[in-house]
Amino acid sequence: SSGNVAIAEREIIYSDLVAPILKLNGSDCVTLRVGQNYEEPGYVAGDNCDGNLTSKVRVSGTIDTSKSGVYTLSYSVEDRYGNKTSVERRVVVVSVGTSPKPSVVVPDGKVIYLTFDDGPGPHTARLLDILKKYDVKATFFVTNKPKYKNLIKRASEEGHAIGIHTMTHTYKSIYKSPEAYYKDLYGMQDVIEKITGKKTTLFRFPGGSSNTVSRKYCKGLMTFLTKELVVKGFQYFDWNVDSKDAGGAKTAEQVFQNVISGVGKKQYAVVLQHDVKKYSVDAVESIIQWGLANGYAFLPLEPSSPGCHHNVKN
Ligand code: ZN
Question: Which of 47, 117, 184, 245 is catalytic?
């Protein structure tokens, strides 16, 4: 009441904990041919406090469209409270069209190509005995198992085709980048050459060319590899009959039924099996008997055989 004033202060912090939203226009994976220009499809950014932040987006990364490869562009934006959002776009540059496609020769007559992945293993010797008994040939997409490497040699000597599958079958390392995939592929090609004396160019992608698991590690990778490896002189094989021995089928009878219903009336069939599964090997004798009774020849894959390529999903 005498006019003396007391002052106290309270600090109020207006804090924003919400990061901006950053959205890419167009796809997060763009495929170009070598020499084709990259045109940035653009992006939009917004924030709960700052509003439109599109002009504040920073783009980093370089693309060399003169060289095939998988390139990454990084986009990031920060609001005035330091909340940050980043996204990536992959740009896949492929040299498709610079090299002729290998010619595929459709076999005469009815053919079953039995193919076995992930071996050799404890059941491979028995499988080779069965194949020998009926004098039929198959294809082995092999992995690096030093303990069983003599079985790769035996399979090759007995007239079966040997193709590359993978050194490790570890998706997160082999599908990290084109370089990581090449290292695995060429590594296994060398292992096979040391064992058999022959350089094979046949291969099967772990999970097939239609796998989506690789998308988690490198967007656009399968689009890149399926084109580039053909240019490099390799032939990849998927399948048009799945025995489902890696999931679904758990007995020899189920494997047999899946295979014969899958082959059906097809003129040629590339059958997927795994010789590391006992019950799948157990089904082979019945499959061969059925195939022979129905007029099929069992042949090993060759570079010109039909690849039965799946639709690439990454
Ligand atoms: Zn496999």
Answer: 117
Is 108 noted as a catalytic residue in this protein? no
Single out the catalytic residue among 123, 160, 165, 274: 274
Each residue's pLDDT tens digit, 256-281: 999 999 999 899 999 999 999 999 99
Specify whether the CB–CB gap between 279 and 250 falls below 8 A: yes
- The first and second tokens of residue 260, run together, are 């014969």
Tell me the CA distances in angstroms from 126 to 51, 129, 130, 282, one per residue in order.
69, 5, 6, 9
Rounded CA separation 254/246 (Å):
12
* DSSP E strand stretches across 39-180: 43-47, 51-52, 58-60, 69-78, 84-94, 111-117, 139-143, 161-166
Tokens describing residue 266: 């097809």
Question: Has 242 been annotated as catalytic?
Answer: no
Q: Note the pLDDT of residue 149.
A: 96
Positions of E strands within 79-227: 84-94, 111-117, 139-143, 161-166, 202-203
Of the candidate ranges 16-30, 62-76, 84-98, the one whose mean pLDDT is the lowest = 84-98
The model's pLDDT over 79-136, given as tens digits with 9 standing for 90+, comes to: 999 999 999 999 999 886 655 566 788 888 999 999 999 999 999 999 999 999 999 9
